[in-house]
Amino acid sequence: MPDVTYLRPRDVAHAVRLCEGTPEARPLGGGTDLMVMLHAGTVRPRALVDLWSLGELKGIRRVDGGVEIGAAEPYTGIIGSALVAEHCPALVAASRTIGAAQIQNRGTLGGNLANASPAGDTLPVLLAADAIVVTDRRTIPVADFFTGYRKTALGLGELIVAVRLPASARGVRFRKVGTRAAQAISKVVVAVNREPARIAFGSVAEVPLRARSAEASLARGDVQGAVAAVAADIRPIDDVRSTAEYRRTVAQNVLRDLLDASASY
Amino acid sequence: MRFTLNGSTVALDVSGSRRLLDALREDLSLTGTKEGCGEGECGACSVLIDGEVVNSCLVAVGQVEGCEVVTIEGLASPLQQTFIDRGAAQCGICTPGMLLAAHALLNANPRPTEDEVRVGLAGNLCRCTGYTKIIDAVLACRM
Question: Are strands A151-152 and A146-148 parallel, antiparallel or unpaired?
Fold first, then answer.
């Protein structure tokens, strides 16, 4: 790896100044995505701004009606949190499917959001939960966060500080389909909520997305219509992990299962 | 940067962006930590940072400033003799990572079920494939 300057800020404000003021700087969290890209040479920043040990970005706390998770809190913390289990069990379920212990000890929600992979496993859950991305300067509804393939609404030097889950996050249900129970990159991820009606997918388009016409059907109580509408809402492709046809079929089947299972909630 | 490595303080004058894996193997000559995939899938480069198992290929060495790092060279656990006794190593490339992941698992959960051992070692791939004996060895070390 060619010379990449390593910078360790004192706090979030310092980190923002470093990210704004250093040409081609990239924030570094637990490194589970960025260190791979650095080593492979697919990204070539001139500096890393290390956010991992900033206390302001850690922790899980109750906020009015919901829960707030620090951007650099690792999945292991989310999996072990009684607060998250109470407010959004689907996020605990999603976090358990991410890599194995080594990745769960370093991977973070802030990283999953900033990396903006269409296959990011927590992202459909955050979409179905109407999560709010809290940055150093504003809040962004997660529905407005993904603007294109691996592109986000974050501005220059803008850092994710936390993710806020409203009370409705409790009703979210989640399912991931991969090749193996552990350590798999998703073929299809589905997250649903009944109240309000939310249907979100991962790995079936260039961004994690909400299936808006399916949601409109679900809001009218039309489960069959919601399942049918998904076909037009998603844009799956053939790639190394699966085919478009498989993804479309499985997305609809898993959605039907999740909605049937959630009928009693 | 300075950190504790297998119980001793070390000081390194290298770029903080260097992978911990490379710092261990090339700068500190501790070659027990193996590189498998280099992208966080296989667990061959597993080490402990403050007691937690991580892939050292995904950690920038600057991030361990002030931390306690344990590599296979610093592990002293009944797991090691048990792996030998039960034939739980074949080619040996996955073994250092398996041992460290198993050690972290038993520290967090001294009496895991077989399923819990499988989940605890899910991030460590053995391509020989000797999972049955590895899992038996870890189960034999339950407290």
Answer: antiparallel
Interhelix angle for B78-85 vs B95-108, to 10°? Answer: 130
Which CATH number among 1.10.150.120, 1.10.260.40, 1.20.1600.10, 3.90.650.10 corresponds to the domain B78-140? 1.10.150.120
Alpha carbon A231 to chain centroid distance? 22
Q: Spell out which residues of chain B touch residue A39, defining contact as CB-CB under 8 Å.
A: 19, 38-39, 57
Tens digit of each residue's pLDDT (9 = 90 or more) over B69-128 = 999 999 999 999 999 999 999 999 999 999 999 999 999 999 999 999 999 999 999 999
Please give the residue range of the domain that contains residue A196.
Answer: 170-264
Phi/psi of residue A256, nearest 5 degrees:
-60, -45
Tokens of A263: 């009928």
Surface of A (181-240) touching B: CB under 8 A: 181-183
Which of A52, A63, A59, A50 has the alpha carbon at shortest distance from A18? A50
**Each residue's pLDDT tens digit, A27-66:** 999 999 999 999 999 999 999 999 999 999 999 999 988 9
